[in-house]
């Protein structure tokens, strides 16, 4: 099994999304010792943001990002909420994987996702607490729409919320997120 592990937090070792995403990957490796993990730290090795110049040429890293995504059976993403949405580093990666003809296409019935044969688990870390229908929550709703557009039907969010309320609440929230990590598909069946 191939697992793509992506972190996008700029907080390094102090990152809750990194701690939770690491735990998700560790559980997959424990359940499936044959798991091949590819790790991308988008904060340490940023992809350039889309520009006219980047569209005019295809960079090796652009090609690798798409190939890694397409090859993965499971994608684990550490996604903190910054200013109500995802980090710009994660958006730059998404711009490399949302490619017409590769991960989606337009047909007579509208858009069709082509990347639906994978499981995606997103470890979300937020300083506040947001209801599912909150008008200020754009991280989970954006990622849900994006991966649905790409055809991913097996999408799970693991949330660590209220991290800025207090140190005690932060510790409790991270532990609650760890407890909410789903069983790897091999064990759930």
Q: Under CATH, the topology is which?
A: Rossmann fold
Total domain count? 1
The CATH class is identified as Alpha Beta
Mean pLDDT: 91
Oligomer, anyone? single chain
What is the helix fraction of residues, given as a range? 25-40%
Q: How large is the share of residues in beta strands?
A: 15-25%
CATH superfamily: Flavodoxin domain
CATH architecture level-2 label: 3-Layer(aba) Sandwich
Distance between the termini: 16 Å
Shape: globular
Q: Trace the largest sheet across and list its strands.
A: 2-1-3-6-7
Number of strands: 7
Written as H for each helix and E for each strand, in order along the chain, the element string is EHEHHEHEEEHEHH
From the helix content, strand content and strand pairing, which structural class follows? alpha/beta
Q: Tally the helices: what do you get?
A: 7
Output the radius of gyration. Answer: 16 Å
Largest pleated sheet: 5 strands, parallel
Low-confidence stretches: none
Describe, in plain words, how this protein is organized in 3D.
This protein has 189 residues and is of the alpha/beta class. It has a single domain (2-188), classed as 3-Layer(aba) Sandwich (Rossmann fold). It has helices at residues 16-31, 52-56, 60-71, 88-97, 139-149, 167-179, 185-188, and strands at residues 2-7, 36-41, 74-80, 104-107, 110-113, 119-125, 154-160. The strands form 2 sheets. It has a 5-stranded parallel β-sheet, sandwiched between helices. Strand 4 and strand 5 form a beta hairpin. The model has no long low-confidence stretch (mean pLDDT 91).
């Amino acid at each position: 099994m191939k697992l793509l592990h992506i972190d996008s937090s700029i907080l390094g070792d102090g990152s809750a999304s990194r701690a939770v995403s690491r735990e998700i990957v560790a559980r997959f490796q424990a359940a499936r010792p044959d798991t091949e993990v590819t790790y991308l730290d988008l904060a340490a090795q940023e992809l350039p943001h889309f520009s006219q110049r980047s569209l005019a040429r295809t960079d090796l890293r652009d090609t690798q990002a798409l190939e890694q995504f397409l090859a993965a059976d499971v994608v684990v993403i550490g996604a903190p909420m910054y200013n109500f949405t995802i980090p710009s580093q994660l958006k730059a990666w998404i711009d490399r994987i949302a490619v017409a003809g590769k991960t989606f296409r337009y047909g007579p019935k509208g858009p069709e996702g082509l990347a639906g044969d994978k499981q995606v688990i997103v470890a979300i870390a937020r300083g506040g607490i947001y209801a599912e229908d909150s008008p200020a929550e754009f991280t989970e709703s954006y990622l849900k729409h994006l991966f649905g557009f790409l055809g991913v039907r097996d999408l799970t969010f693991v949330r660590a919320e209220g991290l800025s309320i207090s140190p005690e609440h932060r510790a409790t929230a991270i532990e609650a997120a760890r407890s909410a990590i789903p069983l790897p598909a091999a064990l759930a069946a």
